[in-house]
Every structure is written in structure tokens, then in C-alpha cells.
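Thread: "does anyone have the structure for this chain?"

Original post by V.I.:
We have the sequence but no experimental structure in hand. Need at least a predicted one for the grant figures.
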Amino acid sequence: MSPKNDDQRKRPRKGDLLEVTFDSLAYGGDAVGRHEGFVIFCRGAAPGDRAKVRVVKAKSSYGEAALEEVVVPGPMRVEPRCSLFGACGGCTWQHVPIEAQRAAKERIVRDSLRSLPGLDAVEFRPLVESPQTWRYRNKMEFTFQRDRYGKLIGGFHRPSNWREILDAQQCHLATDSSERILRAAVAEGERQGLDAWTPELQSGCMRQLVIRHSVKENALIALLLTGDEKLDFAAMADALFAAEPTLKGLAWGLNDTVSDIARARVVLATRGESTFEEQLGRFNFRVSLASFFQTNTLGAEKLYETTREALELTGGERLFDAYCGTGTIGIFCSDQVRELYGIEIIQEAIWDARENATRNGVGKATFMAGDMRLTLPTMVNAIEGRIDRLVVDPPRGGMDAKALDQLLALRAPVMAYVSCNPTTMARDLESALAAGYRLEQVTPVDMFPQTYHVECVAKLRLPVG
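Reply from O.Q.:
Generated one for you, C-alpha cells below.
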């Protein structure tokens, strides 16, 4: 048999049952192992496991497999806390100790950047740990459905079947108070005999519940979204406020659109407050149901401290916060800069940024709404002199190439690139290096324990001369 045919014979095919020993964790959540030199990715396996897996996808150099049976558990395997682990998809690494999760994230960041030139001179700092590894999420979105027995449930979409909702009245990343509100909403929806929204029919009442939690105030605000107006809001509000004393505000919104985005087309009624206050460092921020705010409050404080340190601020700099959102990073750094500028495409976020600057006494702050490529030239023309510091915190997909070129053209002496996706960060850093910047330091930040997600702060410097 020729070597080529021999390779084809050894290469697993879809449906094959293999026994694989796994040795590491990959970005995306899978464990990585090898079968006769063929790389196998498998969700739910842990490093050190010897497991039987079923190949579900076979490519030329790797395969994806489903976990069938753990034959010999590895030393890193622990019992997940959540009964829905493996089905929900929200927590990919509950079966691995937090120490192993952190080590994997450090390695993933390094591996993602390995193709960049000059990496030997880069300082890779230890991962900054989240102060909380459970119950850290300050925002939760639940969806309602009637199960096959006709019971109203609230929970999360099953990743393998977007039409199916998993009953998740307990989530170990959510606060206890969020769980109590969800359970009360389900119970009151049942008492009122309300249907759940059915996507196939585009009809029904109970659709989504959004809950936001303030660590500073230990308070919550919630938005209940329905597909029609059959809800008795007064009774629902009574039930939710009685179930959770820290609930300070409830809104009822109509969401009868095709989109699954949890957003009200129109607000029908409210009770109590519509915003709360959150604190990062010494700074206070107004948060509404629609505001963007990092989902791990205490972790965000660590992330922003790391970013501020990377910027080497002395008090005399002009700081430009690209993709500024509600202004949190820039305002967090504001007491160590002379002037603050920011651009964000979402107008409502800019309104929040301006309000947050005012409430924190940031006098020299300018925030503009608009597309980066179109708005940046206008801002630059209005500024006399150069930008001294640049912080970039783009969406998960990374930077638009033209917008990145415009930002690099500012020639800020020091830049901090904040990323929630190490693979797109590597692509954008390559462009920064080509533009003359030098990558000095990389710091992973664990904002999302029990998941594969990792934030990262990369510090870049433009050499003098």
C-alpha cells in the first residue's frame, strides 16, 4: 500500500469510535488529544482523560469528536457544579479546576501570538485572576418556553438546538437574586396561564427576561419582554418585588419582532427605578437596562487597572479611547490624564459616556458618536497637537482594517490594545508591528472563569526616532 493510501487508512472517518488520551485545552473550549498522530478536538474531555469519542467531523489534519465515555479520568477532572453542564454550553470548563483553567488561558494567549516577530523580547505577565470564580455575572438573559409536558420554564438556548430552551432556574454564574426573580416570573406566568413565545408561529406572551445586578448597591433592575400584551403587569410586578427585596426596578417591554435579540420594541409599563449605580475604583457609573457594561464587575476593575498601568500615564497626556462604549476605560484613567477623547458608534452609549464623565467630575472629556473611519478625522481636526496615549478595545471580531490604519496613523507613543479574542488580537497586532510599533508586554485577565474566554491587554510602544 502506498504511503498516501496508508495515511488515508489511518485517518479517522466520521462515525468512527476512538479511544484517545487528551493532553491540553484549546481556545473554543475543547480538549485536545491525538490518535495515531491525528489531532482530535473534543468538548467535555479534560487533560489527562482517556476517553472513548465518536468522530463527528474529519478534516485532513484534525477531527472533531463527541465524548462517549471517560474510560480513565485524568488528574485534572473535577465534578461540575451545574447539572446542565455539557448541555448548556455556557460553562465549557466547569469540569477542570480553576488553576488548570488559568494555566490554559495563559498558554492560549502565548500560542495565539506565536507567529508575531520579536516575541522573545515580549514580557508575558502572569494571568490576572478574577476576584470571583462563581456568581460573578452582573447581567443575565433568560428565555421562556413551554416544555413537552406543557410546563412553563425559563433558561438558556441549547447550543445544538436553538429552538429548545434548557430549564435553568439555577445558574452558578448568576447571582442568587437573579435566580429568585426568574423563578418568581415563571411561577407568576403559570398562575396567569400565559403562553410562551413560539418562534415558529411568531406568537405567544412570555418571551425573555433580562436582569442586571449592581455590586455597589446590591440591587437589581429587570426587563420582562413579552410577545403580546396579555400580561397582568401589576400582578407580575407584585410577585417579583415580593420574591426579591433587592429588586429596585422592573420594566415591561413588547418584543414581537422576528429577531431573538432581547430588546423592547416599545416599553409598556415600569415600576421603580430604570437605572442603578455601579462603582469601578473610585468612579461611579450609571447603568441602565440597555447600557453596555462588563459582565464581571470586580473583574472589570482588574482589567482597567491593568490597562491603566500599561498606558504609563503621568497626568499630562491626551488619551484617546477608541470604541469607548459608555466611557468606562477612559474615565477610569481620567485622573491621570490631561484630556480625554472617545468615539463610539452607538449614540445611546455616548450619552451614557457624557453623563458618566459629568458625574465623575471629568471636565476635559469629549465623546463623539459615529463610525470610527468617518468620525476620527473630524475629531483629529478638532484637536490641536498629538494624541499621547491610545487605548483600543474593539469588538470580538477585532478591528476594521481601515479604522486600524487610521488609529495607527495617530502615532501615539504608547498604545494599549484590550481584547476578548486572542486570535483577532494577533491579527491586529501584526498590523501594529508593521506600522512600526513594538510589542512590549502582554497580560491575560480572567474575566470569565469556568469558560474558555480570556481578556488580554497588550502594551505597544512607538520607538523614538
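V.I.: this helps a lot. Confidence is low (pLDDT under 50) at residues 1-7.
O.Q.: and The chain has ten helices and 22 strands.
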